[in-house]
Amino acid sequence: MIKIVELTKDNEEKYLDQIVKLEQISLEVMKQEGREGQLFDTGRDGISEYVHSKENSVFVAVDEKGNVEATTYITQGQKPFTYNDITKYFKYGKKYKEYIKSKYPNEQEYKKDLRKIYIIKIQAFEYAKKRILQEYNAKNKQKQTTLYEYLKSEMKQNGYHEKSELRENLNKYMAEYIEKNYNEDINNKYEMFYWITLEDIEKEFGTRQSNVNESIQDYETFMKDEKEYADILEKGSLQIYERPEFEEEKYYTANTKNSVEIDTYLTNPHNRSLGIARIIVFEGIKKHINEHFKNSQNKEIFLCSTLHRDNLSSKYVSEFFGLTDSLYVNRRQGRDREVHICRIDREEAMEYLSNMYNKLAVLYNYNPENRNMTDSVKLKVLQEQLKYEEKEKIRLVRAKSIKGKLKGFNHKFIPEKERKISRLKKQINHIQSQNELQQ
Same domain for 183 and 233? Predict the structure, then answer.
């Protein structure tokens, strides 16, 4: 019998080493399967940091002997525009700029904030640069005065990969500067105008900003001469490969405070239990939704995840929880990712959790509350799942013969889908037959 346990500072020592071992086993299996790079190990210190933070959660599934069979890390409240901030992908592009403009009473007010936030962003960058260089020089016993040497050394070491230390620290400290020195209004506008460049400002004002603020002149000279920030942005620029097939505007209000990320989940690759990943993720999501809506000011919550396009297992877990809107992106020099997201309003939250519970109870026999699953509930869950599996099978079959969006998947999933479809049909027929006999 599997038991779900949330890690706390009181019980973490009982499970930490087992989680680290599970990470190592999973990484090794992924490497053997040719899926290297789809998982970064969090490590003992990183996992413990999640446990001790107020915003994040770690859950484990343990067997009767207390052995960890699965784990998940759920994150919320990250620094804006850092590695885990999925909401940044929706604050980008022409359509988003037009949306922001529409929030202002007139163009003059919009331009005023545009310029103001850009200058603040420069100040935040200078603060972050100072912090990073202090730490870098102390660690390496050097006296670097620019970030460019840091950038070059990082590029040489790891090619500026997805978890670039420089990129993360830059964004983290910039956000820290804004939080410390400005009110909530400026913090919100910093996120709104994050991607704004001097080129954008010149387009808005229709002229080269030759008489710009002294700090802007210093910054532009700095960028031109040192190239450090320009190179950082170039190597870490965002690319969105495909037009979204959903209405993006409903995600414009997402931020790190109201968004929950299914950060990582791992199951024992040598002893996988059916549905275990979905069960532990559900417990994490449930905790965060309940906590979030204890605050009456919170009107919505966003569920997010990122995954590699060829990682269909992760896709199926995300879509199980309703994260069906997705962007295909390259967020840094490195592997492309799919960003999955959904929005849940306060009024829908309890119904959402109840429906998820029913799905787990019917499909995977996870029913710790011993709820009575009526035949109507069972049929609803089974029929919805059948519809999903049939649709996904069609997509996978089509993907064999076309390139582009559907390229890249493991062919073993087609027969697996066929088995699931057959099993679901049998379950549905059994319930319907039983009901007919009773009539």
Answer: yes
- Tell me the mean pLDDT in the region 53-79: 91
The β-bridge relationship of strands 300-307 and 259-267 is parallel
Same domain, 173 and 255: no
223 and 97 assigned to the same domain: yes
Cα separation, 58 vs 156, in Å, equals: 34
Q: What percent of the chain has pLDDT over 90?
A: 46
Same domain, 421 and 320: no
- Say if residue 209's pLDDT is above 50: no
φ, ψ at 339 (rounded to 5°): -105, 120
Same domain as 147, residue 218: yes
Helical residues (DSSP H) of 75-164, grouped into ranges: 94-102, 107-140, 148-158
Q: What is the pLDDT of residues 380-419, one digit of tens each?
A: 999 999 999 999 898 888 776 655 554 545 667 888 899 9
Q: What share of the chain is helix, strand, coil (3-state, %, to 5)?
A: 55, 10, 30
Q: How far is CA 370 from CA 26, 98, 358, 388, in A?
A: 33, 50, 11, 26
Which pair of structure tokens corresponds to residue 16? 């930490």
How many angstroms separate the CA atoms of 358 and 363, rounded? 8
Residue 57: name the closest of 279, 286, 274 by CA: 286
Task: Say how many domains are in the chain.
Answer: 3
| Domain, as residue range, for 106 | 93-237
How far, in Å, CA of 185 to CA of 191, rounded?
A: 10
Report pTM: 0.86
Distance of CA 351 to the CA centre of its chain: 23
- Retrieve residue 406's tokens: 């559907």
